[in-house]
Amino acid sequence: MTIASTTLTHLQRLEAESISIMRDAVSESQHPVMLYSIGKDSAVMLHLAQKAFFPGKLPFPLLHVDTTWKFQDMYRLRDKKAQELGADLIVHKNPEAVALGINPFDHGSAVHTDVWKTEGLKQALDAGGFDLAFGGARRDEEKSRAKERIFSVRSKDHRWDPKQQRPELWRLYNARVHQGESVRVFPLSNWTELDVWQYISLQGIEIVPLYFAAERAVVERDGTLIMVDDNRFRLHEGEVPMTRKVRFRTLGCYPLSGAIESEADTLSGIIQEMLLATTSERQGRLIDHDSKASMEKKKQEGYF
Amino acid sequence: MTAHQSDLIASDIEAYLHEHEHKSLLRFITCGSVDDGKSTLIGRLLYESQMVFEDQLAALHVDSKTAGTQGGELDLALLVDGLAAEREQGITIDVAYRFFSTEKRKFIVADTPGHEQYTRNMVTGASTADLAIILVDARKGVLTQTRRHSFLVSLLGIRKIVLAVNKIDAVDYSEEVVAAIDADYRAFAAGIGLHDITTIPTSALKGDNVLVSSANTPWYDGPTLLGHLEVVENDSALQAGPFRMPVQWVSRPDLDFRGFAGQIAGGIVRPGDQVRVLPSGRVSTVARIVTMDGDLDEAVALQSVTLTLTDEVDISRGDVLAAADDAPAVADQFDATIIWMGEQDLRPGRPYLLKIGARTVTATVGTPDHKVDVNTMEQQPATTLSLNEIGACRVSLDRAVPFDPYTTNRDMGGFILIDRLTNNTVGAGLLQSAVRRADNVHWQATDVDKAAHGVLKGQKPCVLWFTGVPSSGKSTVANLVEKQLHAQGRHTYLLDGDNIRHGLSKDLGFTPEDRVENIRRVGEVARLMVDAGLIVLVTLVSPYKAERDLVRNRLDEGEFFEIFVDAPLAVVQERDPKGLYKRAQRGEAVGVTGVDSPYEAPENPELRLPTAELSPEAASAKVLSMLTDVGIVTA
C-alpha cells in the first residue's frame, strides 16, 4: 500500500475547496462572471480563479461596479491586474448616477451606495445576461451569514428569497436556475479573515497599498479619519488636511472609508493588529469596530 | 485561541503565523438539543478560543441580562442560538457554519439547531463532517433523540464519535453515571456500526473538561473535549483508499495542452501511475500533475489538481479517473438510501436529475421498498417519501455511471436529486450497491447479426416511435404506415401500447412508475425486433422525455425515429374515441396524460405530425418520405 507523505494544512484544504467550487460553477453555468471589488477578498478570489483554470485564462470576465469615487490606488491595481491576466474587465458605471452626478457629499452615503452599487450591479448583471456571479463574501463576516449557502439563488429581480435556498450536501452544488434567475457563488465561504490575510502573505498576492500604514493626507470628521484622495474632496471652511500614518481595514469609496492610525506597514504587522484588535482591545474599540461592521453589512446587502 | 496564542501574537507574530500556517482542518457536527447544552458548548468553544467579536460580546452582555437563563451571568448559549433577527429572515434550513482555531487545528462546526427539519439539517451538516459530537444530558442518559442523531450520523458515514456526557455538574460529577451511560450507548451504537467512540464527561456551562481537565473528575484521565478534537486522526482513511478523481473541467488552453482538472476524491496519484477512465474503461498513464505553483510529485485526496496523460484519450466532464488496477464499478441501476428534502413528496417513476461527482444524469426512483423510522430505526411500508423521510429505493439512470458504495467513498457514492421543474434540490442519496452491473453481464455476440438479418430482408431495421397524448392519432397513422410498408414487401411489426398491456405488461398499472416500466419493456422488445431485422412501429403515449431517451440510447445511432404526433388538447378532447377525456372531466379517470398527468413534448423529434392540420394519409406519406430520405427503405 502506498503511504501518503502529504498532509494538507487547513489553508491547502480551503484552497482546494474554493478551486473545486469555481470549476464546478463555471461548468454548470452559461454566462459566469466574477465580481471584482479590488479589496483583499477579491484579490484572493482572483488568485484562486487563476489557479483553478491554470494554465488557461480565466473563462469569465471580471466585473467592477464602479462608483467613480474609489481610491486612485484601487483603480491602478484593477487595471494592472486585468492587463497582467489578459482578463476581460467590464467596468460598469450606472449611467443614471453619472447623469445626476450622485456623490457622497451631496446625496449621503445611503443614496450614493444604493444608486451606484446596488442599482449599478443589477444593471450590469442584466446587461451581460450573467446567470452566475462569483462574490468574495465569507461566512465569518457576521452571524447572519453563518447560514448562507455557497451557491445562493437570486430571483429575476436579483432578490434573495430564503425559501429558494437549497440544501448543500457533500461537494455537490446545484447551479440550475430558470431563465432570468441567477446564482451568486461564494468560493471563500469557509475562509476566515485571518485565513485571507495569511494566504495573501504566503502566496505573495498583490493588494492595494492602502492596507499598509503610510503617511497620508487626512481630515478628521466626527472622529473618523478620511483621506483626501483627490481634489474633488470638499474641505470645510478652514479645514486643512494633515499628515498621519494611517491604513485602511476595508476599502470602498474614499470619502466613506475611515482610516485608522497605525504603524503596521507589513503583512505580519497588519495581521498582528487585526488579531489584537479582537482579543485585547475589546471594549475600547467597540464603537469603531461596530460602525465599520454595519457599514460592511450595508455593503453586503446592497452589493451582495 | 488560547492564552499561549494571545501571548505569541503580541510577542512574536511571525512565530504565531508559522504555527497557524501548519494547522490542519477538522470539520465536525454537534448533535443534541438546547436542553442538552449544545448551544452552550459551541458558545464556550467560540468564547474560549476568542472567536467572539466585540459587538457580539457587548450584545451578549445585554442579552444575558434580558434573555439569559443564567441569572444575569454571561449566557454562552445566546452566542449561537437563533436570535430574533435571524428568525425574522425566515431561514428554515438552518445549518450554521462556525469557525474557530486552536494552536494545532482550525475547526469548522456545522451547527444544526432546532427540532424542526431536523433530519434535513442534520444530514446536510453531517455530509461534510469528519466527526460528530453526540451530546447527552447526564441526568437523562441515552434518549430517543440520541439514537436518532447517532443513526443519521452513522448513515452519513461518520465513524468518529465523541459522546459528550454533559451537565456532569448536575450529577455530582459521578463516575458511575458516566460509566452507565457509556455502556448503554456503546451497546446501542455497535448495532448501527459505530465503534470509534470517545466518551468525555463535560460541563459546558462550568467548563469542566471542555478546554481544561477538571479537578472535579479526578477519576477521568482521558483528554478534554478540545484536546481530543485537536489530535483525533483525520482524512487518512480517504488517502488510504484507491485513487479517484471526477473530472470537473477539461483544460484546453491551446492545442498542445490537454489537462483534466478535478478534486481528488480518494487515494493518491503520482506521475507514472496507470489510471483507468470511467465509464469508457480506457487505460492511460499520468504524465504530469499540473498546478500554478509548479508540477507536483504527488497529490492526495481533497487536493484540486490538473492531470495530463501520456495518451490522447477522449475524456469529458463527469468522467472519473481511477486507479487502473482498482477501478470503480459502472452501473445504471442501484439500490440506494434516499433522504427526502423536498416540500412535495417523492414521485416514484418520475424523472429527476441526479448529480453525482461532476456528472448529472436523468434518474427515476422506484417505489420505496420501505422507509425507516428515524426514532426506532424500524422499517415501515411506504409508497412514497415525504419531507425528512428516509427510505430504501431502487434508482435507474439513463446512462451508466462509475460509482463506489457510499460507505467506501462519500464523493463516489453520494448524490443529490434535483426537481426538473423547480430546479430545487429535493433529495440526497447514498448508493449502496448496483442491481445490474453494466460491466458484469456481457452481450453474447452471434454470427448472424442485425446487419445480416436486415440484408436478407432488403431493409435497414429501425424503430418508429409514435408518441403523443391519447387520441392524437398515433395508432391511425402507424397503421397506415405499416399497411403501405407491407404492400412494398417490407418486414414490419406494430407494437401497440394497448395491446402490450394485455400480455407482456399485464401486471402493470398507470402509476408513473408502472408507465416507466411499461416503456422500458416495450423498448427492449422493439430492440430485439430491430436485431431481428424488422422495421418496428411503436405507438405509446410515452409522456416522459427521459424514458423515450432511454429507449433511444439503447439503440444504435440512426435506428430510432421519434415521431411526435402533435394534436392540441381541444382537438383530442373533441375526438375522444375511447371516451377517456370525458371520463377524466367527470373525475372518473385519473392520471390522464394531458389532463392531470404531464406530457413532455419532444424537443427535437425526427418528425412532427400536426394531425389537426394533416389528414392521416398525408401524415403517413410524410413518414414514408422520411424513411426514403434517410435510406431505411429504397424508393
Mean pLDDT of chain A: 85
The CATH topology of the largest domain in chain A corresponds to Rossmann fold
> What is the C-level CATH assignment of the largest domain in chain A?
Alpha Beta
- Structural class of chain A comes to alpha/beta
Main sheet makeup of chain B: 7 strands, antiparallel
CATH architecture verdict of the largest domain in chain A? 3-Layer(aba) Sandwich
What does this structure look like?
The complex is a heterodimer of chains A (304) and B (635). With 304 residues, chain A is of the alpha/beta class. Chain A has eight helices and ten strands. In chain A, the strands form two sheets. A six-stranded mixed beta sheet of chain A has the order 3-2-1-4-6-5. Chain A has a four-stranded antiparallel barrel with strand order 7-8-10-9. In chain A, helix 2 links the parallel strand 1 and strand 2. Chain A is globular and about 60 Å long. Chain B has four domains: 3-234, Rossmann fold; 238-323, Translation factors (Elongation Factor Tu (Ef-tu), domain 3, Beta Barrel); 332-434, Elongation Factor Tu (Ef-tu), domain 3; 450-629, Rossmann fold (3-Layer(aba) Sandwich), CATH 3.40.50.300. The N and C termini of chain B lie far apart (84 Å). The interface between A and B is large, with 75 and 87 residues.
Please supply descriptive tags for the structure shown above.
heterodimer; A: 304 residues; Rossmann fold; four-stranded antiparallel beta barrel; 10 strands; disordered C terminus; B: 635 residues; alpha/beta; Elongation Factor Tu (Ef-tu), domain 3; six-stranded mixed beta sheet; 19 helices; 28 strands
